[in-house]
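Risk register update: the risk that structure generation would not scale has been downgraded. Supporting records follow, first protein first.
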Amino acid sequence: MRYAAVVLAWAAMLLEAQSPRLLRVPVWREGDNGEAGGLAAAELRATVAGASARVVRVLGPEDHLLVLLVLDMTEELSLADLAREALGAEVRALPGHVYIAVLRAQDGLKVLVDPTSEREPVLRAIRELPVSGKAGLLESLPAALKLADAIQNRSAVRVALLYVTDSNVYNYRDDYINPVVNWSDQHDLSRRFPEGLIKEKIARLHRQVTAYQTPLAIVHLNYRSDRVNEAYQSGLMQLSASLGGSSQFCRSRHEIPQALAAALTRLRRMHRVDLEAPPRRDGLVQVQIHTESGSLTYRDRFVLP
């Protein structure tokens, strides 16, 4: 019996070693207005780390999509109400093959509604969301990406992460404001670079999340123009871009419905292209995908475990 157990364990390890590692690449047709149709695996040519890569599978806009909707609204109630109303209208208009899960970012990532194609539980969670507490985007992002990756690694479904946030860098539990060390010294670097801590936090977070493959979209409801918040918002933009997603920052109330509609429309038009990764290559790799039927936009850098 012991010999059989050892043989089975070795067999499982061998199968795991032989199974191809996949890169799940979010891809969009450039200039796609929703009428171009899906991409076919046969029309794509891809390379990973300079070597030809097999296109294992392509999922397009007609295939199932799961949007993990993470709500991070803690400050101005009037903006939150406008966002909830606009978000509700967009959710009602989604086609039946789009599934939504609702999560809240405050005090650790919390699931409010499990993935569902039913709209009423999602609308209820959006309506009843409390607008209070501390901002949670930065702390909850790794857990949200880990959850999203786990879902798409085990299922033939497109998965995307959408944060709707009004987060203010001054409203986090952790202090990301660089304190002035010596107020009497006009040459004190802490006085000249107050955004240093938030930049360091974003850089650490960027290194942590680039191993994930789920695209990140961010809709920020309230753009702020002070120096530290601008550094924070620039960091959010970099995070979403590095993960193949998009970010929108609303400078006025009337931009909020447009931003939410644009974010969900873009996610609906997303393709998921699964590529076979090189068997003996780790770390950062560059991806290239080509088609003769038009230009593509896609995430081109991934970290292989």
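Supporting record for the second protein:
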Amino acid sequence: MRKKTVSALLAIIAAIAFGCGRETVEEHATISFMIGDVKINSVEAQIGDIIKQNDDILTGGNSFCDIRIGGSIIRIKAQSSVKISTLLKSGNIEDTEIGLNSGKLLCKPKKLLKDENFMVKTPTAVAGVRGTQFAIEADKLKTTRIKVFNGEVKVARRIRQFESSVEKVMELAPTLEKEQKVVITADEVKKAEKVVENRLQEATAGELPGDNVIEEVIQKSEVQIGIDDKSVQQFSPEDFAKENKEIIEIQQKPKEDIVRITRAIKQQKERPVPEGRLLITRYDIYFIRDGKIQWDGKVVNEAVRSDGKLYIASGEYVFCADPEGTVIWKADVNNDGSLMIEGDKVTVKSGGKSVKLNAGTGKRI
């Protein structure tokens, strides 16, 4: 009990010392884009919502949420639980800490200055970065998976005895480089914590450890903190290409697009239509239903107009809508974006083959 009390006091003192000269800033972090079900502190979220320090964010199935934090941006993937633990800013200097309880994050931190920090914690790992692109996952068994797409990420096991001295821990943390991945399990962390606990007891003879003792034990625990070379692996080109493409494409939407999206969502809430609405901008397509964006895709080719209707293909779907954007039908067809109208037939390319749909119903012919 006494050890827990001292650890808590050390954490508070560290937080106070770190916070001097820095402050939480309103509008420093906002939801820049989202699809599906996203909640902030159990309340339904909207694009443009301000994120504050200690906010909890939950994403539902087939959902995600992009959050702009200063010059950085993260994507919280589906079925994730995240706490924005630290949002501090002083002038141009930013300090961000994100707690990933479960789920997955795609992170694009800005190139950090000397005194800036961007850190992600899972139940079993700590990742510290400086202007890189990486993915981090935490499952229900508290297993952490980290992949680096560009740059370098410092990775350490999250050891509870060192919770108030994370900066010292990260000084000893090994570096994960481009196209490398690592897996950290709860069993590994438990074993590391047992070794650290024994060292603390030996160093203090059962007394409460001071800062100097904790620092000494941290220095002796480099093996427990770090990840050995055998645990670091290269990931496959296919795996790299798919997620790397997504992380590259995560970016702030144009303001005019956000205005149009917000207007379309409001319209769908006020005057709902069963099949939803389609919003086509210069580069993107948004499918809106039940007052939420359900899907977005890229405009590969312009929409085809025929008999007062709009037809457009993109990725997983082919859409037919009226000139106001009200969806008439939506067909699940993987396609390359090419589309042709011939009489009462819509033809799209799928996997190198032609797929024909009924122009009135969207059903395959």
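The chain has two domains: 2-245, 255-358. On this basis the risk owner (M.S.) recommends closing the item.
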